[in-house]
Design goal:
- A hairpin with a 2-residue loop joins strand 1 and strand 2 (about 90-95).
- This protein starts with 15 loop residues before the first helix and ends with a helix.
- The chain has nine helices and seven strands.
- By secondary structure, the chain is an alpha+beta fold.
- The protein is elongated.
- The protein has helices at about 15-25, 30-55, 65-70, 110-115, 145-155, 195-200, 220-230, 245-255, 275-280; strands spanning about 75-85, 90-95, 120-125, 125-130, 160-165, 170-180, 205.
- The strands form two sheets. It has a five-stranded mixed β-barrel. The protein has a two-stranded antiparallel ribbon with strand order 4-7.
- The longest helix is centred in the first third of the chain and has 27 residues, at about 30-55.
- It folds into two domains: about 20-55; about 60-255, OB fold (Dihydrolipoamide Acetyltransferase, E2P) (Beta Barrel), CATH 2.40.50.
- Pfam families: SNase (PF00565).
- Belongs to the LCL3 family.
- One of its GO terms (molecular function) is hydrolase activity.
- It comes from Roridomyces roridus.
């Protein structure tokens, strides 16, 4: 009986196609076969590394976000671990799979100690929330309600972030969407978080130079904010004369004898030249 169970034949020999292939391989010089195997192994190793870097590697914190990620405006998903202010939060990056049943083999830390230096500080792009009490300044009206609304909406939940840039406080400015109800967020976009915040009357549209507004654009943000004002939702319940967060900051900066902080917009980063193989696996 042959070592390899070929389909039964009269002479128990391999099929003619296999014999022809074996004959061709015997005609190839050994150094060429060795070099081909080495090249194939190298390509597989490089491809695997690129796939891991693009789809499997976790971005541990804001320092791990490289200029090419901003240049490509890359999307990431993760779990919101804390909401410290009404327009920013902490995100634990959860790439690829393994975070949910039935394929759950990766765990999101739950304690402050284990989460230290393991999250990205996300600043929601395009909106400005009522200021909480900071640096001896009193809080703005509706700041607590706005914070409570955001916590209820995203804390402990999965969101999707398109990363734009790093601001002057080292936060990652990002366009944020909620997780879709049915299909995975990689296939279909969920609701826009900044638009939901504007619709609820929890924030105002951010109008400073260099602001980003995601795919909807500035005009849509202003339209949704106008709707909330007309319906007297959230911070607009008592009228439209409320001091905006931007006006609040300018007033306090002037009273303290200093100019309001100017947001520095980093110059656009030009992606470095990469090989065709690297570009093939880049998003």
């Amino acid at each position: 009986m042959p070592l390899i169970p070929w389909p039964a034949s009269k002479d128990d020999s391999p099929p003619k196609e296999i014999q022809a292939l074996a004959s061709r391989l015997r005609d190839i010089p050994a150094p060429v076969l060795t070099l081909s195997a080495f090249a194939l192994g190298s390509v597989s190793t490089v491809s695997g590394g690129l796939l891991y870097r693009r789809y499997l590697r976790r971005i541990k914190n804001s320092d791990w976000v490289t200029p090419d990620v901003f240049a490509k405006k890359r999307w990431i998903k993760g779990r919101v671990t804390s909401v410290g202010d009404s327009d920013n939060f902490r995100l634990y990056h959860t790439p690829a799979f393994g975070w949910r049943w039935p394929l759950k083999f990766r765990v999101i830390p739950s304690t402050a100690k284990d989460l230290k230096d393991q999250t990205l500080h996300i600043r929601i792009a395009g909106v400005d929330a009522p200021e909480a009490a900071h640096f001896g300044r009193p809080s703005q009206p509706y700041s607590e309600e706005s914070l409570a609304w955001l916590r209820q909406k995203i804390l402990g939940k999965t969101v999707y972030c398109q990363l734009f840039r790093r601001d002057q406080y080292s936060r990652i400015v990002a366009y944020v969407t909620l997780s879709p109800n049915f299909l995975p967020g990689n296939w279909v976009s969920g609701k826009s978080l900044p638009l939901e915040m504007l619709r609820a009357g929890c924030v105002t549209t951010y109008l400073q130079a260099g602001a980003e507004y995601g795919k909807e654009g500035k005009e849509e943000y202003l339209r949704v904010e106008a709707e909330a004002k007309a319906a007297r939702r959230g911070m607009w319940a008592n009228g439209l004369t409320m001091e905006s967060p931007a006006e609040y900051k300018r007033r306090h900066a002037a009273s303290e004898g200093s100019d309001p902080p100017v947001k520095k917009i980093p110059a656009p980063q030009t992606p470095s030249q990469k090989s065709w193989l690297s570009r093939l696996f880049s998003r």
